[in-house]
From TrEMBL:
<feature type="transmembrane region" description="Helical">
    <location>
        <begin position="279"/>
        <end position="301"/>
    </location>
</feature>
<feature type="transmembrane region" description="Helical">
    <location>
        <begin position="157"/>
        <end position="181"/>
    </location>
</feature>
<feature type="transmembrane region" description="Helical">
    <location>
        <begin position="242"/>
        <end position="259"/>
    </location>
</feature>
<feature type="transmembrane region" description="Helical">
    <location>
        <begin position="7"/>
        <end position="26"/>
    </location>
</feature>
<keyword id="KW-1133">Transmembrane helix</keyword>
<feature type="transmembrane region" description="Helical">
    <location>
        <begin position="310"/>
        <end position="329"/>
    </location>
</feature>
<keyword id="KW-0472">Membrane</keyword>
<keyword id="KW-0812">Transmembrane</keyword>
<feature type="transmembrane region" description="Helical">
    <location>
        <begin position="335"/>
        <end position="353"/>
    </location>
</feature>
<protein>
    <submittedName>
        <fullName>Membrane protein</fullName>
    </submittedName>
</protein>
<feature type="transmembrane region" description="Helical">
    <location>
        <begin position="193"/>
        <end position="215"/>
    </location>
</feature>
<feature type="transmembrane region" description="Helical">
    <location>
        <begin position="115"/>
        <end position="136"/>
    </location>
</feature>
<feature type="transmembrane region" description="Helical">
    <location>
        <begin position="32"/>
        <end position="53"/>
    </location>
</feature>
<dbReference type="Pfam" id="PF04332">
    <property type="entry name" value="DUF475"/>
</dbReference>
<dbReference type="InterPro" id="IPR007427">
    <property type="entry name" value="DUF475"/>
</dbReference>
<feature type="transmembrane region" description="Helical">
    <location>
        <begin position="65"/>
        <end position="90"/>
    </location>
</feature>
Length: 379
């Protein structure tokens, strides 16, 4: 079962790591491995969400999502998108960006370094909004209650996440404005770039979130219609148009999943820039990690359980928040890539351990209840 589900992911992992060694030696091997772990950790909640929706779809649409959907969301967003980011920020064509990355690494590195403030501001704002929207939502299950409980109450204030994100962006851009006053025009341009890129990141998040909400609403409407037709069919004894309605519902599910995949892929791609600017290592690492998203989704659907480790989603979002802060800080200060990569791993591991501990406590409480029931019944 495990080998059948993760076989392709294991194969891509082996090929990707071998290619990394040939490309840049053991240092590249380490960077690619960290990128893969980062992508897997950030995408685990994506796999959970995908599985929850995918299990409602028929076999045909599941196959469409796991084939066409993989090509669009995995290879398109995670492998092509980094090239697009560099091409846009460095004002190059995608072909020139790839050609430069492969033939003149020093020049490419300089272009990416110059574009880093814009990349970090755009990505930092996008990731920060993902984290803030999660942390301000009132949830039945809370991981770090001493943080999440008061923040959930604050989250009832409309547009609070947007206000906090804009304040963070203003503080970041004012840092460059201060430098501009001291050092001149080059930093003034960077301050303006940071502000514009950050606003673009916020707008992008709001557009993606709006599309996701739209498809989610349409999906709920289709489910309500299907339920009404089932009740009508039960009363009249007539057969409803199951094929057409199921196709419509599955189509909206597919569109919704693609938007979700696109939104979740932003954090991995942007987070990768906090670890390396090398486009080849980025493509290898994100490609390996993205394959596990597909395998995890299939595994969760086939297993039929999504609630065993309830804090993993929390850990993934805390990792997103940490990456957002790191990206904003790296606009001015340099942070070691290993530290950046390990932050997400530590948070995911911590949330996994917390989930295991919670399951043990609940299991022990269940056993105690059974024993008390047996005693009270005289067994």
């Amino acid at each position: 079962m495990l080998l059948k589900t993760f076989g392709w992911s294991f194969a891509v992992t082996a090929l990707g790591l071998v290619a990394a060694v040939f490309y840049g030696g053991w240092e590249a091997f380490g960077v690619v491995a960290i990128l893969a772990v980062l992508e897997i950790s950030l995408s685990f909640d994506n796999a959970v969400v995908n599985a929850g929706i995918l299990k409602k779809m028929n076999a045909f649409w599941q196959k469409i999502f796991l084939t066409v959907g993989v090509l669009i969301a995995v290879f398109g967003m995670r492998l092509v998108f980094p090239v697009v980011i560099v091409a846009v920020t460095a004002k190059l064509s995608p072909y020139d960006a790839v050609h430069l990355a492969l033939t003149d690494k020093d020049r490419y590195q300089q272009l990416v370094t110059d574009a880093h403030p814009a990349i970090a501001a755009f990505g930092g704002m996008f990731l920060l909004m993902i984290f803030l929207d999660f942390i301000f939502e009132d949830r039945d299950i809370q991981w770090l209650r001493w943080i999440e409980r008061p923040l959930a109450k604050l989250g009832k204030v409309d547009m609070l996440a947007v206000c906090i994100a804009l304040i963070a962006l203003l503080i970041t851009s004012l840092t460059f404005a201060t430098q501009a006053h001291q050092h001149g025009g080059a930093h003034a341009d960077k301050a303006q770039t940071v502000l514009i890129a950050g606003v673009a990141g916020l707008i992008t998040y709001m557009i993606v979130g709006g599309l996701s909400g739209y498809f989610e609403d349409r999906l709920e409407e289709e489910e309500e219609r299907e339920h009404e037709e089932e009740e009508e069919a039960a009363r009249t004894g007539k057969k409803k148009s199951a094929v057409l309605l199921a196709g419509q519902a599955a189509f909206f599910m597919f569109l919704y999943l693609e938007v979700l995949d696109a939104s979740f892929s932003f954090d991995g791609v942007i987070g990768a820039f906090a670890i390396t600017n090398d486009i080849v290592m980025m493509a290898l690492g994100l490609g390996i990690g993205a394959m596990y998203v597909r395998s995890l989704t299939v595994y969760l659907v086939r297993q039929g359980t999504l609630d065993d480790y309830v804090f993993l989603e929390h850990g993934a979002h805390y990792a997103i928040g940490a990456l957002a802060v790191i990206l904003m800080v790296t606009i001015k200060y340099e942070i070691n890539e290993v530290i950046t990569g390990l932050v997400g791993v530590v948070l995911i591991a911590w949330s996994f351990w917390s989930s295991v501990r919670r399951n043990r406590v609940l299991a022990a409480a269940g056993e105690d209840s059974d024993e008390k029931a047996e005693v009270s019944s005289g067994v």
